[in-house]
Design brief:
Keywords: ATP-binding, Kinase, Nucleotide-binding, Transferase. This protein has 308 residues and is an alpha+beta fold. Helix content is 44%, strand content 20%. Helix 3 crosses helix 4, helix 4 crosses helix 5 and helix 7 packs antiparallel against helix 8.
Length: 308
């Protein structure tokens, strides 16, 4: 048995903002993927994954949600037979490792499932998002459901608000010098503690005002620029976003990257932003000259996501 592949995702824009109902843009990232597999001779990784699936099954048995009909007996039998999730998606890196697993389980074991082939109305998307939110909460304490949704549909998704999401097209990649890239912090991040820091900060009126008046507005403009292929305006606004994040989200940026972050803003060679909740994992970068940035950041691992 080898299930279909489910890809990683990158939240290009909207980290934390989507918690407070502002815009977000998520895209599939096909460099990493996972699939459900059965193995007669499992290695240690497969055994570890199988045990995690057993724990996850216990959680799924507690779920009661309208529209979520999972064939748990079949899932249990497959887990007993040694099924595991064979994944290259790094965990704790903000690229949707648990989302891909949730998408794979739903795809294989859900009855009356909503499929990618049907007309995806807003109601259907919201229903899927609600199902995935519950299914993924086992891994993060609380989930928006967007990671599994992105992985399941394998389409870019525009989040206008909690109740307004839609598949979207993104401009074709060009063979230009500019790029979106991932910078590997080589630190494993944990979502829950970072979200807790954010929620505590939200108790502060000044921070809430900054989110509404600065962070959310700049994020919305960045999404508009990206979807419209306006690279010149995008870089101007990503610089603003990078400054706001460095000033107000410092706990989410690993200490060793504060200087690198500041240097990018100072020199205009590249701009960094959070990829997911932060605290480690990947940092997202934007540059007008990828080759030059690779040279500047040669002490670090970079991965190309998108070309301008």
């Amino acid at each position: 048995m080898r299930g279909p592949l489910f890809y990683a995702k990158i939240l290009l824009f909207g980290e934390y903002g989507i918690i407070k109902d502002s815009k977000g843009l998520a895209i599939p990232y096909n460099s990493y993927q996972g699939a459900l597999k059965l193995s007669k001779e499992p290695n240690e990784l497969a055994k570890s994954s199988n045990q995690k699936l057993k724990n996850y099954l216990s959680y799924l048995k507690t779920l009661q949600y309208e529209g979520l009909l999972l064939r748990l007996d079949e899932l249990e039998k497959d887990i007993e037979d040694g099924m595991y999730f064979d994944s290259s998606i790094p965990q704790g890196y903000g690229v949707g490792s648990s989302g891909a697993l949730v998408a794979a389980i739903y795809d294989k074991y859900a009855d009356q499932k909503i499929t990618v082939l049907e007309n995806l109305t807003r109601d259907k998307l919201l229903k899927l998002k609600g199902i995935f939110s519950l299914m993924e909460s086992h891994f993060h304490g609380k989930s928006s459901g967007l990671d599994p949704l992105n992985s399941y549909l394998s389409l870019p998704i525009l989040i206008n608000s909690k109740d307004n999401i839609e598949p979207t097209g993104i401009p074709s990649q060009k063979e230009g010098k500019g790029a979106v890239f991932l910078l590997d912090s080589e630190i494993i991040g944990e979502t829950e503690p970072m979200v807790n820091i954010f929620m505590n900060k939200m108790k502060n009126e000044g921070f809430r005002k900054m989110i509404d008046e600065d962070f959310a507005k700049i994020t919305d403009v960045c999404i508009h620029d990206f979807l419209n292929g306006d690279a010149k305006s995008l870089f101007k606004n990503v610089k603003k976003l990078s400054k706001v994040v460095l000033k107000h989200f410092k706990p989410m940026i690993p200490d060793s990257f504060h200087h690198i972050w500041q240097e990018g803003i100072k020199t205009n060679d590249y701009y960094l932003k959070l990829c997911g909740s932060g605290g480690g994992g990947y940092i997202l970068g934007f540059t007008k000259d990828y080759e030059k940035t690779k040279e500047i950041l040669k002490a670090h691992k970079l991965e190309l996501v998108y070309r301008f």
